[in-house]
Amino acid sequence: MTCQPKEANRLRHPGWKILGAALVLIEGMIAAAQGATNVAGRAGTSPLSRRVVAYQIEARLDVNKKSIDATEILTYLNLAGRPLDQFPFHLYLNAFQPKSTFMREVRRDDPGFEWEEKHFGSIEVKSFEVAGMGDLTRQIKFVQPDDANPDDRTVFQVRLPKPVRSGARVQFKIAFHAKLPEVFARTGYKRDFFMVAQWFPKVGVWWHGAWNCHQFHDSTEFFADFGTYDVKLTVPQNYVLGSSGEELASVNNPDGTKTLTLHAEDVHDFAWTANPNFRVVEDTWTGSAGKVKIRLLMAPGHLTQAPRYLRALKSTLARFDRRYGPYPYDRITVVDPPHGALRAGGMEYPTLITADTTWWMPEGLHMPELVVVHEFGHQYWYGIVATNEFEEAWLDEGINSYTEAKMMDSPYGPARFAINLWGLTLSDADSRTLSYRSLPDTDPLARKAYQYMSGAYGGITYGKTATVLLTLEGIIGEETLRRALQTYFTRYCFTHPTGEDFLKTIEGVSGQNLRWFFDQAVYGTQVLDYAVESVNSDRADWFEEKAEKKGETLYRSSVLVRRKGDFIFPVEVEVKFDNGEKVREKWDGRDRWIRLAYEKKARIVSAEVDPEHKVWLDTNLFNNSQTRERHSAATRKLANYWLFLTQFFAQLLAWLA
Amino acid sequence: MLWGVYAVNFLLALMGALPVALYLGRVLNRSLAAERLYKAFDLSLFVELITQPDVSLSALLPGSFLLASLFLVAMVFLSGGVLEAYRCDRRLGAGEFFQACGAFFWRFVRLLVFLLAVLVPIGLLFNLAQQWSGRLSADAPWEMLGFWVGVGGTIVVLFLLLAVRLWFDMAQVCAVAESEHKMRRALVRAFRLTFGNFAQLFWIYLRILLVAAVGLAMALWLWVRFVRPEWVAVSFLLGQAVVAQWLATRLWLRASETLWYQHHSAAPPPEPSTASAPNLAA
């Protein structure tokens, strides 16, 4: 299904409802012709996505045992274009066991990590039935498609006795028991706080002619099909609950629990949270697609920071609406994890995000805002444009890091402050670039997330991608890149695009062939570093003993610029002279060096590569320029700080005397 | 005396700062990017700077740490002369001063060893308090409990440190005033004097330290509020004022304790030394 650009339409416009209803009708007719039941959207709404899956889950949370007992009915629509007789499922919670692939990788990358029983999590399939095919529990087979670790149980597959025809539906009925870990990687509990994510058996994605169902790795996230979720959750009556779904009903039970009926559609995941101590803050925001209900679930100790979350969320909603396209859902929940549960923070689920703060966060430290901006951005890049986070993590984390930097630009000051405290400044864009520069050459963006070098995932997927896109702004223009992202969003919303889809969209919108850039920046590991090697100005009549006269003496000046890295990129060089003249040269950057020569009645003051600082990928800013004369003000300043710190430390030490 | 101590402190720190200036200068002195550190303080650029191969601040840290430690040794040496001057209540000549410094140096080194031994359990206590505070911050139902336990623990530890400092300062005063050679005896006598008059002595120390803390807070406020990033000279002067103030605070504490000892102690002070030498300029 193609989304129209926001100027032409909005996703919840009546015209789209009609078209959507027509598509559902056609789909239903095809399914009916093949003997399957019609699973359309809720009455009065039209689907925004191809609803491959329809989950109905009834679950009961045991707050004392930190476990969930549930039954799941999954209706799967076969849109593979061929019969399917084998279905893989994710069991993500089984990653929280010492022998799993996830834990192996955690320990490999952090040898100091110690296993504790509280880290244990699991999900056990009690029974697996298929409508019309009987009980297939014994057919469950754990597979390890990524690393052949026989102890990893995060993926199982079942072979059906009869294949499911193309266009037909199959219904799975799965009973399962989940044990939650104490939260240390997104999901779990802390005291009486529960963040329940990746908690049910989730079918893989049929993608590009094959099943795509990876094991759960330390550095991967998730990938699933769009569909509907009808979930009934039973929790203690005093618990406040938030979820990816809309609450349709709440019924108190005689045993002191309550059962909430929740519904979500056109999403590819369903997460929920429960805590008796949440303080609820509600608000609304109205965008081009209509009203959005905002719900903050705040830890009591952080309640004073609710306005910061709200401000950040509303301004991001507005900016995304204007820049990329309308937010199609009518709700968004922000979960503020309590102290000790911050590892559940900074995460995204459809229509629900987890934030991150502490009680002592000063105003000039924009960490809570940054988390909200980033996690909300994932509603677009991941939630709606649902790329494969296992194989192309850069498409959601990286694009989102770029758009986050643009969002943080606007409300927090011209220098794009992530930190603006006591004279210290740090822009969000700079912080992303810093993380890239720490490891610029280890992995290409396009590598699978679980194959990155240890410790490189963050720097590459977040930092390098954001830096690549910031550099791309300098090539095609900021507004063109914005239009490209807008086109990408509207063209691929509610689908699973690839990296090539994204890059081709940029080329299409910009009208430029950017392969030379993408081959290096996305598919390669070349490092970009241009440096001004030397500047000098010498008298043309150097062999004569004459006094120099400013404005009259002729000088021969030269600037030597080098390409120190292996990334080839066209650059500008600006040369300034002491008569106020500025000359800007363009160099294609192909050769290893270039000498720029001048004959003027003025001497060079400075030369700078990339004077407008558009080439964010350059890994060394200090060698981008050279002045003919020395200016030691910055050195003196920093040396002064060092002097003071040494003196103060020395006098502190001398209190032992 | 203050300016002599300050001069030693300044010169030692300068010896640590000069190589830093040299390394930083290689990268910054001809780069236009340096402006972002001079006219403001761009954290990302600073982090990039210190990760430059040419800079290697981590290699320079041990040198500065060593020089700071030398200042500690210098203060151990100078303490004898300082206390003798306070005891005599007059300016000592250079010869007298350094004679006193030398006379008491090794005794004060022994006291330093005893002090370090006493600080070990206090350090362990601090560590335990921090660990407990951390666990409470994560696990206790009330988020602030961990914070308050941490604050409480820190206050207790600071109190203990001040009490120990009081005791050992008194031991040094006793050693000088009574020309005591056995530091254990000096410690025992000092213990009785200090903890027999703890409230009075603690209050003397506390109010002097509060004045110093207020001074530091004011300097920090002035620096953040009024000093522009490019005002290097103003920043330098403010920093030096803070250092001088804290050095003065330490000398003030010693003078106060010596004075208290002279007014309250039963043991008669020995005759001051009579070596003639030019006056040592303060």
The oligomeric state is heterodimer
Biggest interface, chains and residues, is: A-B, 59 and 72 residues
User: Can you write the helix and strand succession of chain B as a string?
Assistant: HHHHHHHHH
CATH superfamily of the domain at 48-276 in chain A: tricorn interacting facor f3 domain
Q: What structural keywords apply?
A:
heterodimer; A: 657 residues; alpha+beta; Immunoglobulin-like; 8-stranded mixed beta sheet; 5-stranded mixed beta sheet; 32 strands; elongated; disordered N terminus; B: 282 residues; mainly alpha; 9 helices; disordered C terminus
Would you spell out the secondary-structure blueprint of this structure?
The complex is a heterodimer of chains A (657) and B (282).
Chain A: H1 14-33, E1 53-62, E2 67-77, E3 84-90, H2 101-109, E4 122-130, E5 134-135, E6 141-142, E7 155-164, E8 169-179, E9 188-190, E10 193-196, E11 202-203, E12 205-207, E13 210-212, E14 227-236, E15 240-243, E16 246-252, E17 257-267, E18 272-275, E19 279-287, E20 290-298, H3 306-323, E21 331-335, E22 347-349, E23 352-354, H4 367-380, H5 393-412, E24 417-421, E25 424-427, H6 428-438, H7 457-476, H8 478-492, H9 499-510, H10 515-521, E26 530-539, E27 555-563, E28 571-577, E29 582-587, E30 593-600, E31 604-609, E32 625-627, H11 633-653
Parallel strand pairs in A: 1-14, 20-21, 21-23
Antiparallel strand pairs in A: 1-2, 2-8, 3-7, 3-11, 4-5, 4-8, 6-7, 9-10, 10-18, 12-13, 14-17, 15-18, 16-17, 19-20, 22-23, 24-25, 26-27, 27-30, 28-29, 28-31, 31-32
Chain B: H1 2-28, H2 35-38, H3 43-50, H4 57-88, H5 94-139, H6 143-177, H7 183-196, H8 198-225, H9 232-264
